[in-house]
Amino acid sequence: MDPALKTMIDNMPVKTGKSLAEWKKILQAKSFEKHSEGVKYLKTEHNVTHGFANTIVTLSKEENNSSEDLIEIQYKGKENLFPIYQELIAFANSLGNDVTITPKKGSVSVIRKRQFILIKPATKTRIDIGFKLNDKPTTSRLENSGPFGTMCTHRVKIAELSEIDSELKSWIKDAYDRSI
């Protein structure tokens, strides 16, 4: 979990008067259709600041899956790709003790101070890695970001462990170095 988010959740009872679990129950009973309705309700009816209200509503919509659950869900039916994921994470973690791995519903953000790579099982046979490498020219392998849009500047498609080579590792290290 992102350290700033963890701090916000830890401070929630003091700052808002209730824990995240208590806020989730309140919002569940109201069952707002729109995100903005839940935020407005918390701000007007409970005097919660906008930042906390937005976070509470966002987190109340997410399933209560652990990081391990999110990874398992991503690779269900794509188990052949899991060793590639593990190798990418091991390399990212070797870059420094300031690397944070943040699984989401469909991808994993790898963060230093900012996200520097995004790992996504794109198909049953391929993982896509998104990079933040501004000003780096594209190549036949280091493609335009494609479906990652503005979250990333480049993408590399990986189908086999052997593709995690020195060239790929140099791009990951470059993205890590730029994310300070």
Characteristic key phrases:
single chain, 180 residues, alpha+beta, six-stranded antiparallel sheet, 7 helices, 6 strands, 46% helix
Note down, in words, how this protein is organized.
The protein has a six-stranded antiparallel β-sheet with strand order 1-2-3-4-6-5. The model has no long low-confidence stretch (mean pLDDT 91). The chain is built from seven helices and six strands; from the N terminus they run ααααααββββββα. The chain has 180 residues and is α+β, with helices and mostly antiparallel strands. It is 46% helix and 15% strand. The chain folds into two domains: 3-61; 68-178. A hairpin with a 3-residue loop joins strand 2 and strand 3 (115-121). Helix 2 (20-30) packs across helix 4 (50-61) and helix 3 (35-46) crosses helix 4.
Secondary-structure-based class equals alpha+beta
The residue fraction in helices comes out at 40-55%
Kindly report the average pLDDT value: 91
Please report the total strand number as a whole number.
6
Shape: elongated
Summarize the structure.
The chain has helices at 3-16, 20-30, 35-46, 50-61, 67-74, 82-94, 166-178, and strands spanning 100-103, 108-111, 115-121, 127-131, 143-144, 154-158.
